[in-house]
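step=predict obj=Dolichyl-diphosphooligosaccharide--protein glycosyltransferase subunit 1 n=410
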Amino acid sequence: MQSSLALLSGLAVFLIAVGSSDSQILIQKADREFNAAKNFVVERSTLDLKNSGAKPVSDVVVCHPSDLTSSRAFFEVVQGTSEDAPELEADVQRVLFTATRYVVSPYKIATASTQVKLPSKNTESYQGAGPVSKSGSTVTFGPDTDVQPFSSGALSVHFENNAPFAEAVSLVREIEVSHWGNVYVEEYYNVKHTGAVLKGEWSRLKYMQDARRNGASSIKDFTAVLPRSAHSLYFRDEIGNVSTSSVKRQRERLEVRLQPRFVLFGGWQVQFLFGYSLKLHTVVSKLKGGLRQLSIPFSTPILNLPIRDLTVKVVLPEGSSHLEADFPFAVEKSVEKKYSYLDTHGRPVLVLKKQNVVPDHNMPLQVTYRFASLALLQEPLLLVGTFFAFFCALIVYARFDFRLSHTKSV
């Protein structure tokens, strides 16, 4: 019996071991491909399995290197890191990529090969025991035959990669639902350039004279994609409003270009606030039984931005109950309270936390809750009641005589 197992990582693939190892399984061919063209590594593995025994096998064990546990994201991730000495402003950025030569498996592999796709053909070196070849921007390790179970080996590729290594060290997204017509989104970013650290001084004059040569790997701006209904956009930092952003309205979306006050080189960080509003009817829908459902992207609208620590806070109107949120991946969930204007017992806040977030995680966040339409009258009635009580007290005060003695008229 023979079958094919394809393991795909859209930025990352986390392979979970299920079942138990069985010696009657044979991997006839194991092809693995790494795409290291960006600031993260995409891995794709294809395994051709054969059951050489007489008993049927229902489970297959797929292993994952333990040293990558802290950096895995969606399924499995191999983090490409810049390990060169600090670079000068005009230097190119070089990256050292290391990984296991074989697919780590409890089964014997008849034929195995690994390909590493690079952003360009400019490589410093590539090493690995066994056959190694290079064609254009692709380095191929193998084919290797008769690979024993749990063999790993090692490979490394030292290559040029001028992609901006942007990573959000932390991101806090606050999504506030108001049934008066809008959903307000505020995002607090702490972004770091994790590429080769800049050596020496930085000259804005040299950078402006030839930005391609003097800042090939620098981060100049960020591109965010929003729904076409987004409005009331703002972009701020610690100093105040940043006016270097621009919006390009397309047929079905908005492209927002966010340009910080300074470009980012390796080791530099920037903190900023990005906010916008969405029409309520575009993201909140009514369900049966008085339920409502919020559907909005889980992660950042900024393209190609991995996030180390992501916190999403969904603030629902006061009086909301029966909060539920389902995800195809694991997240840490909790509920807290937030007090704002005219609140009496606080607004429920669903807090979601996740580490190592990549674009594959940016699926629709669907939060279901119960909210009665009559609850909208709470704040207006509270205002009316407050003013009514104030004026009643004022009338009573004006009609009473609080003098200790009456003045006699002559």
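step=describe
DSSP finds four helices and 23 strands in the chain.
step=end
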